[in-house]
Amino acid sequence: MIKKDVNELFVTCINDHKEDFYRLAFSYVKNKEDALDIVQESIKKALISIEAIKNPSSIKSWFYKIVVYTALDFLRKQKKITLADDQTIEYLRQGKEDAYKDIDLYNALDELPLHYKTVITLRYFEDLKLEEIAEIVDENINTVKTRLYRGLKLLRITITEEELT
């Protein structure tokens, strides 16, 4: 395939799935600006290495992988220090009710080790197939299945413990 065609496929993929990519980045950093930065950095990385794509039909999975690794790199650099932005502080100061419908689920998901959180997020929040997830996280499909099973089990235990307290 010609380079121009791959670039066009990539641009189409970004346009068609930009909300999905943003949501995935946001699920890691919980901050609008940081999530946008991660998507922007991911696009930059993708454009630099777009010639490495061997199968143009897997551009979406390839880019998901870049977003995941960029988000993980960001978290490593930040060392999980989360600063509240002015908008969040103002919102909390007004005493409004939480906008999250399933805050217990999101909190429990945040407590999981990243390799479980990543698989669960890609499977249930991004609705990706196990094969796509295996390609994104660069693991064997059986490893992905095991992580999904164990992650869901840990999630269930965490949520159950929270309900008991």
Characterize this entry briefly:
This protein is mostly helical. Helices cover 76% and strands 0% of the residues.
Output the keywords.
Rna Polymerase Sigma Factor, Chain: A; RNA_pol_sigma70_r2; RNA_pol_sigma-70-like; Arc Repressor Mutant, subunit A; mainly alpha; 165 residues; 0% strand; DNA-binding
Distance between the termini: 58 Å
Apparent shape: globular
Unreliably modeled segments:
none
Strand coverage percent: under 5%
Name the CATH class of the largest domain.
Mainly Alpha
User: What's the total helix number?
Assistant: 8
What structural category do the secondary elements indicate? mainly alpha
Query: Order of SSEs, N→C?
Result: HHHHHHHH
The profile of the biggest β sheet is: none
Q: Supply the CATH superfamily name of the largest domain.
A: RNA polymerase sigma factor, region 2, helix turn helix motif
CATH architecture of the largest domain, by name, is: Orthogonal Bundle
CATH topology of the largest domain: Rna Polymerase Sigma Factor, Chain: A
Mean pLDDT: 84
Query: What's the number of structural domains?
Result: 2
Radius of gyration, in angstroms, nearest whole number: 17 Å
